[in-house]
Amino acid sequence: MIVDVLTGGVRGGTAILYAALGETIAERAGVINLGTEGSMLTGALAAYAVTAETGSPWAGVVAGAAAGGLLALVHAVMVLGRAANQLATGLVVLFLGLGLTSMFGAAYVGRAISPFQPYPVPLLADIPWLGPIFFQHDPLVYGSYLLAPAIWWLLYRSRVGLTIRGAGERGEVLTAYGHSPQLVRYLAVVTGGLLAGVGGAHLSTAYANAWFEGMTAGRGFIAVALVIFAAWHPLRAVGGAYLFGAALALSPALQARGLGFNQFALDALPYLVTIAALVLLGRRRSNAAPEGLSRVFELTPAK
Amino acid sequence: MSIRRLSRRSVLAATAASTLAAVLLAGCATNTTTAASTGDAAEAPGTGGTAIGFIFVGPKDDYGYNQAAYAGSQAVAAAYPDLEVLTAENVPEDDNATRVMESMIRKGAKIIFATSYGHKDPALKVAAANPDVVVLQQGNLVDGDVPPNFGTYFGTVYEPVYLAGIVAGKTTKTNKLGYVYAFPISQTLDNINAFQLGAASVNPDAKTYVVNTSSWCDPAKQAEATSSLLSQGVDVISQHQDCTATIIRTTEAAGAYTVGYHADASELAPTGWLTGSEWDWGPLYTKMVRTVLDGEFTGSEYNANFRVGLKTGDNPFVQSAYGPAVDEETKDLVEQAKAKISAEDGSPFAGPVVDQAGTVRVPADTIPDYQTIESIDYFVDGVVGQIPSS
């Protein structure tokens, strides 16, 4: 039972994890992208469509990343190039994604694909408890195991990360060193969209194995919330994503065993857990927020 | 600073414009309503129109409920080439539906099909405002008196589900069947109960494990629900969802068996497909339209909560074709059961029906009528799981 819930947590949390890792990079550079949900959705459709046409889910992931990144580029152009409000633009980008996928996705509802298959890691998959929870998944899950520490290293141990964080704290300093903070932010936002697109690809080509209108069902917003809950730290985002995934997996796991519980409380649990975590951890770590983000709430464009 | 001021100004302008538009629209709608209701009252409702309107709650190509209703509307279009068939997809179950139906009436429709359960209240509103228009509502029930230009209709969905339950009960090796459903409405509970009753009629050890997703279509939740059933040893999975592909593919990938719903999805489960239930609305829609056009709607069987099943005529909800895993013995059992529930004294819910707590809900030798069955609010004995409650 517990193994089931945790396995479901990893499986269901992976899409959110990719999006949250991407959004961490974007917010570290000082740009919040509420359009992450839209990037996930376009990523899910593009990945599904390309997998259906080519037969290769890997080609699908590349297409999903490209589609998610392209939508994020719209956000970047609006907020960085045209100095539009980040929150409002993010929502517009989300609805753009919803509309586009609804229009182009109709042809792929009900199309069959050859999805990613679970690939148990030799030896590791046989470990009791840990094996089924972590090592009997599809390749994209394993990819996220590598990506999270890689992004941590990138942000905190590399010169590139210093530049990204610089863009999110004090853009002027970067300028003084001869870098363009706007260019860094552009790249960070687009990278965020790319990863959200990979998250969407995981949903449609590895997890649900189907495309349906609006199938991300708010997971992109959860990812944005997780970034804050994780205090803009990529490794804490891993825990947050799996916590949310496990909370989602709890309800079916209980029901499949005939265990009764307040259904509405169970349905609300993932969101309650996220809100509770935000409230409990958010205040203490509020000083961890990139300084550039505070400008969002003062309605001043990133500079 | 200038940017902020500009955007605030444009927001104000947009708000003003949309308010104006809303006022204008509301004015239009009221005018037409009055005009329509002062029409010639001597004519029978529903006659003399140039169009027939259909509204759907979802997209017309969802491989499910809405696609089936849309196919029915196209059958009507083929049967009555002189009438224009108006269709509207993704119509929400609120006042927007009222507006869409009113606009169809303005385009000449005198017959409206409101095809979703939640379209009932807007449909009643439109019928009250337009006595010369017949409004037919799919799936819901009117309490008390049915207005002279209104009717609800539906097939007995649980009949083919019961037959599919027989196939599931004969096929399972673990005696564990799974059912993924969206919400505990009576239609869903009927289906789950009929599925279990059908399975238990041929396999007394069969039990049905239920998981709900609290959504008509959330593929990720469906995947999780299916995985948790499979990890419990369930080897036949059925469902009551609007989008069906995820559950079927997840089941097939695990080597388990599928019982479909809404549409024939056997191509998604080439080895595991057993059978299923699917809609065939065309004949019933066409018959209802004929009655209305003949001026005989008021007082007819359709001017009521009309339910059609194996006993009363052709059920628009039919059993899907069998998959390769079903043997001849099972098919014979299904034929026998079909004859039995089609008979005057037969029903999937023929007593005794016992609920999970052991209480007898339908006494022995009793056949509940359609209304009783459609108000079932319990799981029968053999269903494992609880109805969500707060």
Rg of chain A (CA only): 19 Å
Estimate the global geometry of chain B from the Cα principal axes: globular
Number of discrete helical segments of chain B = 11
Let me know the average pLDDT of chain B.
87
The gyration radius over C-alpha positions of chain B equals 23 Å
Beta-strand share of residues of chain A: under 5%
Task: Describe the protein.
- The complex is a heterodimer of chains A (303) and B (390).
- Chain A has one domain: ABC transporter involved in vitamin B12 uptake, BtuC.
- Chain A contains 13 helices and no strands.
- Chain A has helices spanning 2-28, 36-54, 57-81, 86-105, 130-134, 139-157, 159-169, 171-176, 181-207, 219-229, 234-256, 263-282, 291-297.
- The longest helix of chain A has 27 residues, at 2-28.
- Chain A is globular.
- A seven-stranded mixed β-sheet of chain B has the order 12-10-9-8-6-7-15, with helices on both faces.
- In chain B, strand 8, helix 8 (245-253) and strand 9 form a beta-alpha-beta unit.
- The longest helix of chain B has 36 residues, at 2-37.
- The interface between A and B is large, with 39 and 44 residues.
